[in-house]
Amino acid sequence: xxxxxxxxxxxxxxxxxxxxxxxxxxxxxxxxxxxxxxxxxxxxxxxxxxxxxxxxxxxxxxxxxxxxxxxxxxxxxxxxxxxxxxxxxxxxxxxxxxxxxxxxxxxxxxxxxxxxxxxxxxxxxxxxxxxxxxxxxxxxxxxxxxxxxxxxxxxxxxxxxxxxxxxx
Length: 168
Prior knowledge:
By secondary structure, the chain is α+β, with helices and mostly antiparallel strands. It folds into 2 domains: 2-32; 38-167, no CATH class. It is built from 4 helices and 7 strands. The chain has helices at 2-25, 27-32, 117-125, 133-145, and strands at 38-48, 53-63, 71-80, 88-93, 99-102, 105-108, 163-167. It has a 7-stranded antiparallel beta sheet with strand order 6-5-4-3-2-1-7, covered by helices on one side. The chain is elongated, with a radius of gyration of 23 Å. The protein starts with a helix and ends with a strand. The model is unreliable at 18-34 (pLDDT under 50).
């Protein structure tokens, strides 16, 4: 009985010391998802069926060690798939603001998850009709979210109004 207690105690001491070693070496953190600083370079494609808008988002940025989210910039193409409409191009950034280009004219646009109506209002002001406000709001959220890194972009099943076509 005494030998069994000693064997169990030694076993737990080895396991515990091994866990401490893994934790301080960084290997333990990798298993939990804390991999240190990293750069991201992602593409996401979404489709809004009622409004017939497809958006292609190419984003890149940096997530610091210990953070889930970082800072990035995105170039976005937004176009209709069934009608002839000039491509709308947007540039978004977590630090530099947003701009929209349409018909060779660029202007700042201050949209965010809290103010998705700004993109809808712009589309309406330039005469783009048959747009669904819920889809445009969700597209706006998708455009803003991707600038924060891998963990912030919509995946399949996380949207209500738009479709996730691709994420990589």
